[in-house]
Design a protein that fits this description.
This protein starts with 7 loop residues before the first helix and ends with a helix. It has one domain. Helix 1 packs antiparallel against helix 2. By secondary structure, the chain is mainly α.
Length: about 60
């Protein structure tokens, strides 16, 4: 089964694309929506990434026993 944890580069790409969409001329309403959506996906990716790292760190001590 594939891991649902995004790669850190993938998370950073969402933030970079949000900046590109927000600053690209002409600045129209749908670009604002796309930038907000990408920022949301980026924040969710950070949340999933940090949650998986935290889960890995709590599993390591139990595996050593």
């Amino acid at each position: 089964m594939k891991s649902k944890v995004p790669h850190p580069v993938q998370v950073a790409a969402f933030f970079a694309l949000a900046v590109v969409f927000a600053t690209w001329q002409p600045f129209v309403w749908w670009r604002v929506g796309a930038a907000v959506l990408m920022l949301g996906f980026g924040c969710y990716g950070l949340y999933v990434l940090r949650r998986s790292k935290r889960a890995e760190s709590t599993q390591e001590p139990s595996e050593l026993e």
